[in-house]
Each structure stands twice: as C-alpha cells, then as structure tokens.
Amino acid sequence: MSESPLPTIARVGIVAKAGLEEAAQVVTDVVSWLESRNIEPVVEQATAELIGLQGLGVREAADLPDTVDLILVLGGDGTLLGMARQIARSDSDPPILAINFGSLGFLTETTLPELSDALASVVDGAARVDRRRMLRSRVVRGDEVLTEEIVLNDVVITKSALSGILDLSVTVGDQFVARFRADGLIVATPTGSTAYNLSAGGPIVHPLVEAVVLTPIAPHMLTNRPIVLPERPAIHVRPERDLRPADTFVSFDGQAGHRIERGDLVTIEAAERPLRVIRAAARPYFAVLREKLRWAER
Questions:
Q1: With helix as H, strand as E and coil as C, how does the chain read?
Q2: Do 214 and 268 meet the contact criterion of CB atoms below 8 Å apart?
Q3: Which of 8, 97, 228, 237 fits 266 for a cystine, CB–CB 3.0-4.6 Å?
C-alpha cells in the first residue's frame, strides 16, 4: 500500500555499495547538500572510508536505522537488499531512497541524474512512499531454531550443483499443498516476483498486492505451475526422502544462507512490518517494467 508524505527529515543516513569508487564524489556532494540545508548527514562506516570521512557522523550499517529519518542507498539492488535486512532487524523503520549505480537496478529505480530532485522532494515533504511487504523465515530442527531472517525478495530452497532432485513437502497453514520434485523452490514477495522468481518462470505480481508466490525451480513434473497465495497463513517447507544424495540449502535474498537436512522445517510468513521505499515520481511501476525488462515490447 502507499502512505502519506513523510515527516520532517533531520538526519539522513548514506550507504554506498562496498568499494564503489565512482560513488565517492556523489557522497561528498550529498553531504554538502544536506549540510547546506541544516540536515545532519550520517555516513555508513565503509562508505565514509571512500571519502576519508571520520568523526561523529559515521556509523556502522547496523546502527543506521535507529539513528536517522531517511536512508540514501547508492548502488544496485543488492545494496538495497542488504540495507533492508538491517532495517528489518532494528526497532525503527526509516524509508529508503535508492539511487541506481548497478546494471539493472529494478529496485533501485531512481537514476543518478534524478538524485537531487528526488532528495529535495523527500526533504520538502513532497515525496511519497510505498510499503513493500517482507517475509520472516525460520529454519527449525526439532525444537531448535537454527536461523531466522527477514527478506524483501525471496526465500529459496535449492540444491548444490552435483546433487540430485529435491523432494520438498509444502503445507500452507494446516493444509497440505504438494510434494515438489524439483531443483528447488522459490517463495517470493511481490517485490521479489521480478527477481529469481521471474527467471524461473514465475508470474510478475504488482508490489502492492498482498500475496506470496510459490515457484518450483526446474520441476520434474509436466503439470506443475507456480501458484500465487495469500500472504497469510504461514508456508511450511520440509525436505523429504532423498531421491539421490542431495546437499540442500536455504538462502535469504541471496545474501545469507543455511544448509538444511531431511526433516528440517523452513517456515515462511509475513513479517510484522513492511519496508518503506521512496517512490520514483517520474517512473511509475509499469514504466519500470517496460524500461528494465522490456516488458510487453516483444
């Protein structure tokens, strides 16, 4: 869903893609721009090293969400996903303004030439934000929670390169869905529907739809198709008997992962709160589809 204009912005966090040297001058310019408007810049530690900045205005990435009113991300989708995970772990939920320095940048849809206007619209209270749904996932073995993560794009259960086909049992709430024989399974948010899900043949889902997409990877069955589910109740995935020896892994937004075994339970459910993302005023969602994916052009 969308929400009303932002409140007053007093502190802005700045995060650039790790080692992105071409962002150094942009960071310097943004710091000057903010200071000229009596807004305090707070620069992430690794980003500060790009411009040789030291002092009180430098914070670790994990500390930014509880420190600022807005986070400016300079990089690609991976940089945004990493910052989204930091926000999800925090007690605060500052919105993200993402500027594309990557090649595709489907999530980081605002371009570098649009940076000044986009930042000004946020500071002036004219920008609007989208609330992007996130998923919380747990891996449970017996009574032990092995790991817990929150994702913006997807939870993916997959195999190693030399493993055989996986046998994955899926339940939604208390209803059994199916046992999927496949190379893996993608559980994606609407935001993540244009990521790995799309490459695996899953549907595009508008990011404001309250849904979750379940897409098998290379399924060993002719009748299998992806399915769009309500975001509640929880989805449960359990690796069953090995058809052949298989190394099975679960990954979270492609940024963290965990090896799982037969009988482990992977639970995916709606996170308690969404991620707030500044909308690109000059580029509606369907324009992004056409521009980034050449959607409906061939």
A1: CEECCCCCCCEEEEEECCCCHHHHHHHHHHHHHHHHCCCEEEEEHHHHHHHCCCCCCEECHHHCCCCCCEEEEEECHHHHHHHHHHHHHCCCCCCEEEEECCCCCCCCCECHHHHHHHHHHHHCCCCCEEEECCEEEEEEECCEEEEEEEECCEEEEEECCCCCCEEEEEEECCEEEEEEEECEEEEECCHHHHCHHHHCCCCCCCCCCCEEEEEEECCCCCCCCCEEEECCCCEEEEECCCCCCCCEEEEECCCEEEEECCCCEEEEEECCCCEEEECCCCCCHHHHHHHHHCCCCC
A2: no
A3: 237
Is there a catalytic annotation at residue 77?
Answer: yes
Amino acid 225 reads R
The residue type found at 99 is I
b or e along 72-81 (b: 16 or more beta carbons within 10 Å of the residue's beta carbon)? bbbbbbbbbb
CA distance 61 to 64: 5
Residues 204-258 pLDDT 10s: 999 989 999 999 999 988 777 899 999 999 999 999 866 566 789 999 999 999 9
Domains of the chain, first to last: 2-132+274-293 (3.40.50.10330), 135-270 (2.60.200.30)
- Is residue 97 within 8 Å of 259, Cβ to Cβ? no
**Cis check: omega of the bond before 94, within 30 degrees of 0:** no
Catalytic hit among 29, 63, 69, 77: 77
pTM score of the predicted model: 0.91
End-to-end CA distance of the chain: 30
- What is the tens place of the pLDDT at every residue in 42-92? 999 999 988 887 776 889 999 999 999 999 999 988 999 999 999 999 999
